[in-house]
Amino acid sequence: MLNIQEQLAALLERIDRPGDFYATGTLDMHPPRLRVEGIGTIALPLLPVQAQQLIGVAEQAPYGRGSETLVDTEVRRTWQIDAAQLSLEGQRWQDDLATLLPCIAEGLGVTGQVEAELYKLLIYDAGSFFVRHRDTEKCPGMFATLVMILPSEFSGGELIVQHQDREVRLDLRRDDPAAIAYAAFYADCRHQVLPITDGCRLALIYNLVRRDGGPLPQAPDHDSARTELTRLLSLWSERPDQGQARGEGQGGHQDQANWPRKLVLPLEYAYTEAELGFRALKAIDATLAAVVRDAAAASECDLHLAMLSVQETGWAEYTGYSRWGDDLEVGEVDERVQELHSWRRPDGRSSAMGALPFTDHELCPPSMLEEIADAEAEFHEATGNAGASFERQYQCAALVLWPRRQRSAVLAAGGLDVSLPRLSELIGDADASAGADAEILAEARQLAQAICAGWPASDHSAYFASRNGKSARFLSALHRLGDTRTTVDFIAKVAAAGGYSAQDNVPVLAILDELPAEHAGAILSSLITGNAQRDPSACAELLAKVLAGKPELTGETVKPAAMVLLDGLPIAPPARSYYGAPEKMTPELVTATLAAFQHLDGALDTASVNPLAQQALERFLTHPETYDPDQILIPAARAVQTGEAPLAANTPLAEQLKDAMIALLRQRIAEALEPPADWRRPAKLKCQCTHCQELSRFLESPSDSTWRLKAGQQARDHVSHQIRTAQCDLDLTTDKRGRPYTLVCTKNQASYAKRLRQRAADSDNLHALLDPNGTGDTA
Question: What is the rounded average pLDDT of the residues 335-363?
């Protein structure tokens, strides 16, 4: 038994005739010079005064009932002007019309020469309409009707066209004054024009005819394929479990549990990302999309149009040498990336979803992408230790389906770049709907739960998802949804387990602000306990803001977490970890920690113990190698004095920090500052090779100002590296006269210049701390 992918592909191959019962679109055309007998030239876009003039020379449009032609404004309220009273001038108009007709013929699935005969000009003013009806054959060879809406301002008046059990609703109103909308449909289609609610709709009506004497074209009939496709998709959509298929069962039969999570149907024609859209599909692609769209809607499946991309990289092999250089061919593929991106919806809107991976198993048929081997490869010659390589890319448009009931699982499995934008779209749609649409909200909550369940499991991935702002986006979405259960689950499962950073604090604060104090305290404690050792800055900021905004929190509730944070304040500079570069110590860490602990100390009985804030301050002050005074402590003290930090300036703790920094600055300013008395410079080289020993002797010499090392590049690079590592007071140049080159080292006063800059900065900082308000009082 064939699997669903092969069944679907075989079914769609039976649709060998393009076209549908209608064709519609918009053209930027050159409007004609429209002359009406009794009025003259009509301005386009249509002016209201000329709309009244047209009605003045028009007649009530009749309708046909059997062999009779009747006028009844309860059936048709429209004004008409016969073609004999019209004149359409302008060569560009005729050229545009000639260009349009083949496109319409293709859209209707018609072959051969098609002509358009002007029939009438219809004027629909406010209240005008035409009930459901069929057109009669008005001339030999007529098989369809073409409606062209000339530039005019109106609202309402949608055209509804029905063929058998299918129906489309076409809005032919265009805001662009240079755009002309058109719709063509077979003459046996029932259609109606809904009432005009405002303005005036100006429509040219053409009869589409074919004069070759053969049978008249009939609307393409894909009903049997549509019915079978609906049955197949319904079977796929309604199964209890989709699973993640990887193959077939015994005997070639594919179990339903192994059916793919989504289906990908590559299209035939080439499209660019800029032009991609359901309305831009060509010939057989448009027909397939129409059939699949109807079947998807009937079987409760989501349908999207997307770009399918396959990228391969790997090793190339030499096959010989020709006059044009080495011949290369594709060898082994090292990496293959398959993605769907640039999403479009059937209603024409784009989607913010990111790239969604897919497998060959989800393709219809699964072997479809074997032609990637025919894609042109770009080769790269071997360089250094790397061999020859290649890369190639294959891209096409594709229809993508998944069961609506499995939408959340599909999107969540696609990764955060897909699921988070969709979640934001759903919440935005719910907010925009009157009273927040309950169905949209339910879907958003279901997707949020699926995202939470499928969040990156490893500490490394979860941490970087937070650093990249994805955790913050998700928490913000959960807050907007009011989904407390999923929020608490996510914080416990992800954030409190290491997937947390300072970016998460804004949504976390908003969430905690709406929770009872006891519940908020428990969540706060779990976050700090799980992250204090790794990111004390983020934890301190969160603790300070929560305690400042929630005074009802008892000290005993969060004291255990605060003790963990105190223990997490590093004594030695943090080393590079599994997560990458260590978190930098910042002034904000100091001020937030002191502010948070000061709040907490005020809520605790600290008479008999050393307050937490005091312990933290002592740690900051006694480990300058970790909490650099110039980069961390002095900026923290200045931020407190200017009110830019959460720690209040008029507290004893703030005064201690300020006094300690003032004492340090005064001590440094009091030190003697003299330029070097001779050419002796600090020599703290770690290497003791022959060249570095010579360099050390040169640095210690009080009389030598220049040293020249004539050596190979490897030796010169080694010495240069040692000089930069030890920050020696040397300027380096390379004398390229002769071989080998010569490294020229000239002593400078870089250390003295640095101390001068430090002295100026110390003076500025001291004045700022003594006189934060700029009053001139530095006593």
Answer: 89
**Sequence-distant (≥ 6) Cβ neighbours of residue 472 within 8 angstroms:** 466, 503, 504, 506, 507
Angle between helices 438-453 and 416-432 in degrees, nearest 10: 160
Q: Which of 16, 18, 11 is nearest to 290 (CA)?
A: 18
Q: How many helices and strands in the chain, by DSSP H and E? A: 22, 28
Q: Span 453-466, mean pLDDT?
A: 83
Distance CA 512, CA 491 (A): 11
How far apart are alpha carbons 282 and 268 in whole angstroms? 9
Q: How many CB atoms lie within 10 A of CB 320?
A: 8
Calculate helix-pair angle for 505-513, 536-549, nearest 10 degrees.
30
Q: Are 569 and 550 in contact (CB under 8 A)?
A: no
DSSP class of 386: B
Confirm if 645 and 636 have CB atoms less than 8 A apart: yes
Residue 224 CB burial class (10 angstroms; 0-12, 13-18, ≥19): exposed
From residue 110, how far is each of 25, 115, 215 by CA, in Å?
A: 17, 12, 12
Cβ-contact 734, 705 below 8 angstroms: no
Q: What confidence tier does 325 reach under pLDDT thresholds 50, 70, 90?
A: very low
Residues near 327 by Cβ (< 8 Å), separated by ≥ 6? 318, 319, 320, 321
DSSP assignment of 460-482 equals: HHHHHHHHTTHHHHHHHHHHHHT
Tell me the pLDDT tens digit for each residue of 529-574.
Answer: 999 888 899 999 999 999 888 877 777 888 888 899 999 898 887 6
Report the candidate in 138, 189, 176, 217 with the shortest Cα–Cα distance to residue 44: 176
Residue pair 26/73 in contact (Cβ under 8 Å)? The answer is no
Identity of residue 777: D
The proportion of the chain whose per-residue pLDDT surpasses 70, expressed as a percent, equals 91
- The 10s digit of each residue's pLDDT in 86-141 is 999 888 898 999 999 999 998 898 888 899 999 999 999 999 999 999 887 788 89
Nearest-CA neighbor of 764 among 750, 751, 778?
Answer: 778
Residue 608: pLDDT above 50?
no
Please return the burial class of 359, using the count of CB atoms within 10 Å of its CB with bins 0-12, 13-18 and 19+.
middle
For the chain, how long is the longest CA-to-CA vector? 121
CA-closest candidate to residue 316, choices 413, 244, 391 = 391
CB count, 10 Å around CB of 445? 20
Instruction: Give the helix ranges, DSSP H, for 337-437.
Output: 407-413, 416-432
Residue 529 — φ and ψ, nearest 5°?
Answer: -60, -35
Task: Indicate the helix (H) or strand (E) that contains 452.
Answer: helix 438-453
> What tokens does 84 get?
């004999």
Q: CA angle, corner 109, sides to 106 and 112, nearest 5? A: 75
The reported pTM is: 0.63
* Whole-angstrom distance, CA of residue 351 vs CA of residue 401: 15
Q: What angle do CA 370, 371, 377 make, to 5 degrees?
A: 115
- How many CA atoms lie within 13 Å of 602's alpha carbon, on the beta-carbon side? 14
Query: Strands, DSSP E only, in 520-642?
Result: none
Cβ distance 287 to 18 under 8 Å? Answer: yes
- pLDDT, one tens digit per residue, over 728-771 is 999 999 999 999 999 999 999 999 999 999 999 999 999 999 98
For residue 72, what are its two tokens?
């009844």
Report the first-to-last Cα separation within the chain, whole angstroms.
Answer: 94
Write out the H or E segment, with its range, that includes residue 55.
helix 48-57
The helix/strand/coil state of 96 is helix
pLDDT per residue over 632-647, tens digit each? 999 999 999 999 999 9
Partner residues linked to 327 by β-bridges = 320
Phi and psi at residue 47, in whole multiples of 5°? -85, 145
For residue 450, give both structure tokens: 């699926």
Secondary structure in 3-state letters for 658-674? HHHHHHHHHHHHHCCCC
